[in-house]
């Protein structure tokens, strides 16, 4: 690639060459063809100078992690700036490329010459394209150098972190003696510095100190009162509840720890900010005050966490199966380790402020690691587990064998690591065991709370769920949906609180977290594809806004314009449908564009599909489009009872090609979507599952019709799933050939229960009719014979068989004898 200077480009890429000059003068570079290109060249040159400065800064601060964090942020910002500069040239490059394609190639030898203006335009565009290529190449080279520098910073920080942890220090009696002397000197110096600062503050900064403290306390009270107003029910335990639910215990443990810790943290942070802002803190005292506030926050957090999880004095609110004594002992061990860590951190800040020797820090960390190791070993021999009978006051059981071994190994490992000289590593592991463990468990409790609240039919039993039911008259389904949203919000709070705190404890800086968050929301790379979560979220919001705007316009036009103009209903429906499709399409285009998806790629896909359609994909595309229509319009959905020309059953699956219908004989029928679009489809459960069912009943002519109707209404009103509005009805249909025909009609709340309801009603009707003496007649047939003259041999009386009964002019039952006589009569007619 060629380097581009701020003044111009090499002559090989110039738009036009200057006339030959005397050899004493160098040829002047051609001017750039575009002001934006000129600005891009200047930005690239500035980026080169900035990159050189950052490279020098990384070399000079190879041992300073804080400085490397700041430099890393600057390098990342520089890389984004260079990338933006290069991307801004892309539209102009595409314009030049398109225009050159329109102009075509220059005429070849022997062809008619083209117009001078066309030649000049082509030459100018070609030169400008070459300049843009040169600038873009320079930007690519610069981006590679920036990425290399970023990797170098990351590797330097990794080596620095490892070197700090694995640094070995000799531990001996002389070291302990030197540390004792340094500690005595440090105490004297700190006492003198503290007394002088307090006297200075009391004389000159008294009002500022009290104002800062008052403002910080007000901030903490506002946060605490707001938390109590929103989550007051989940901050205190009710001693009158003997057996609280698991969701109540989880919620109180999580929110009481989180909100109260945040309130105290707000007081401490704002106190330091106000004290420092009002110039109350001196440079030598400010780090000590910050460490003191941090130690207080750590001890309070661990104490709240232990009380929330173990509940030493309230076993009914305990989240783990521990005895009362076990809960107290474990809580005490955690609090003791937190105090040791906090005091070590505070004394370390005092030593740093007073300029104490390094040996004092080493010995203090050694003592802290040894104490924490001994606490872990002592805790491993305890008996904290709940007794088998479940009595929390009874002596507990020992730890599970694996847990006890882990605690002992961890304690011994800390002690041995510190004694052999790796004090920094031992101190780091001890700190992470306490603080990181507490944060992880608190985050896990938050996730469990979200899971419990979002569980089906659980949110309605909470205080907020009952309030929503009474205040907004919300149904069970709506309450469950709100509970799901609340559960997801608790997930987000737990993760967005716990993960950053853990990363900060493990060596990350705030700038690192900001950089990670920026990249997560603006640039997520999957291979060669770059995805912006923020862009996708913006696109979704724009699409949702366009969709709701379209629906509002539809309703407004229909109710205010077309209804007042007495427009035909068909025209109104067509206009509404057209506006709906147009608005959704425009909203989709806007949303896709805002999400950063190149619409030209969609055009390529559309063109490929059009070619495929021309080669015999009509049916596939027809089914595909029909499937999209079914998914959007939703004339039926999964679970609906439908009747089509080919099948009747329950819809079990709708895909973009076909719809699967399961018949009541459990046969799956795959129906292409185009058939469902082009044919009439009956949907028994389109908008709801309410439907009418009928039971035909026939009784003999001897029955009282009114009594029959009363009995049927009485039985149907006692049946479940039958709606009272509209009320059931009995229709006297007709006077049948041998019966009075009725039809019992009723509405069901769920058509899926129709078969069971009809079966139960039929059984009840039959039983009641037998009790009331109402007969259900069977089909009857009366056959009437007339004795007309039939030619042929007369029937002798003696030839009459014993099973043949005399037949007169009246109707007789169609028995075997009658059928025989009818057969003989028919034979006689044929002979005649």
UniProtKB/TrEMBL annotation:
Annotated stretches, region: Disordered: 1-34, 788-832
Transmembrane segments: 207-231, 252-273, 285-305, 326-347, 359-381, 402-423, 429-448, 482-506, 526-549, 579-597, 603-632
Occurrences of domain Mechanosensitive ion channel MscS (ranges): 619-686
One Gene Ontology MF term: mechanosensitive monoatomic ion channel activity
GO cellular component annotations of the record: plasma membrane
Keywords of this entry: Cell membrane, Coiled coil, Membrane, Transmembrane, Transmembrane helix
Domain Mechanosensitive ion channel MscS C-terminal: 694-776
Subcellular location per the Swiss-Prot or TrEMBL entry: Cell membrane
Start-end of Low complexity biased regions: 14-34
Membrane topology summary: Multi-pass membrane protein
Short name of any one Pfam family annotated for the protein: MS_channel_2nd
Coiled coil: 132-159
Principal subcellular localization: membrane
Signal peptide: none
InterPro entries associated with the record: LSM_dom_sf, MS_channel_C, MscS-like_channel, MscS_beta-dom_sf, MscS_channel_2nd, MscS_channel_C_sf, MscS_channel_TM-2
Family to which this protein belongs: Belongs to the MscS (TC 1.A.23) family.
Descriptive protein name: Mechanosensitive ion channel MscS-like protein
Naturally occurring in which organism (per UniProt): Rhizobium gallicum bv. gallicum R602sp
